């Protein structure tokens, strides 16, 4: 399954930018809006501040049981009550990528319990992971989350929990972009 999307920052778009906060490494330039669209059908515009592209792919570190648990609780993106979103592009260090797949899985799940943490917040917080590393992008992943305003505190707990794990020691660049759906 390959579904390539473009996240286009500029002065128009479906999502109004509330904040752009560098967590680690270089920030991204501020833009007032972000549009998420198919990368194949999006022309570059004069007002484009930056563009990131990513593709939906298989979940590389999930076991069958974890996939089943995620799919049973995951709600789709685009729910009418999900007026807030967070776009968090992440790049991991060379030392992460130098590890073997099973070593990354051990850190990701057995040590950091990434999937177990995420499951606690489903179905209230919908999420999608976009892979960017093999596309020549400045980030390895774009994580996209959508949630209703009443779940904003739960989202803060989710990202705080994830950032406190051993896995996050390998993150060298992370930008936290908060968004609100335009009426």
Helicity level, as a percent range? 10-25%
Question: What is the CATH top level name?
Answer: Alpha Beta
Strand content of the residues, in percent?
25-35%
Q: What is the third-level CATH name, the topology?
A: Alpha-Beta Plaits
The helix-and-strand class reads alpha+beta
Coarse morphology: globular
Explained architecture:
- There is one protein chain.
- This protein has 183 residues and is an alpha+beta fold.
- The protein has a single domain (3-181), classed as Alpha-Beta Plaits, CATH 3.30.70.
- The chain contains 5 helices and 8 strands, in the order E-E-E-E-H-E-H-H-H-E-E-H-E.
- It has helices at 64-73, 94-98, 101-111, 114-120, 152-163, and strands at residues 3-10, 15-24, 33-38, 50-56, 84-92, 126-131, 141-147, 171-181.
- It has an 8-stranded antiparallel beta sheet.
- The relative contact order is 0.25.
- The mean pLDDT is 93.
Please provide a brief summary of the model.
It is built from 5 helices and 8 strands.
Give keywords.
183 residues, globular, alpha+beta, 8 strands, 25% helix, eight-stranded antiparallel β-sheet
SSE topology sketch:
Layout: E1 3-10, E2 15-24, E3 33-38, E4 50-56, H1 64-73, E5 84-92, H2 94-98, H3 101-111, H4 114-120, E6 126-131, E7 141-147, H5 152-163, E8 171-181
Antiparallel strand pairs: 1-3, 1-4, 2-3, 2-8, 5-7, 5-8, 6-7
């Amino acid at each position: 399954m390959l579904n390539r999307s473009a996240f286009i920052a500029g002065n128009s778009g479906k999502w109004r930018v509330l904040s752009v906060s560098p967590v680690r490494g270089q920030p991204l330039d501020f833009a007032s809006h972000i549009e998420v669209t198919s990368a194949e059908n999006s022309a570059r515009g004069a007002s484009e501040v930056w563009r990131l592209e990513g593709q939906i792919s298989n979940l590389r570190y999930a076991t069958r049981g974890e996939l089943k648990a995620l799919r049973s609780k995951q709600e789709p993106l685009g729910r009418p009550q999900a007026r807030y979103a967070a776009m968090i592009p992440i790049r991991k260090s060379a030392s992460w990528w130098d590890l073997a797949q099973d070593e990354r899985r051990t850190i990701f799940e057995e040590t950091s319990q990434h999937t177990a943490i995420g499951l606690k917040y489903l179905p209230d917080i919908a999420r999608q992971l976009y892979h960017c590393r093999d596309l020549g992008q400045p980030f390895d992943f774009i994580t996209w989350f959508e949630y209703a305003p009443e779940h904003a505190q739960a989202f803060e707990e989710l990202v705080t929990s994830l950032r406190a794990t051993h896995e996050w020691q390998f993150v060298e660049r992370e930008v936290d972009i908060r968004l609100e759906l335009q009426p």
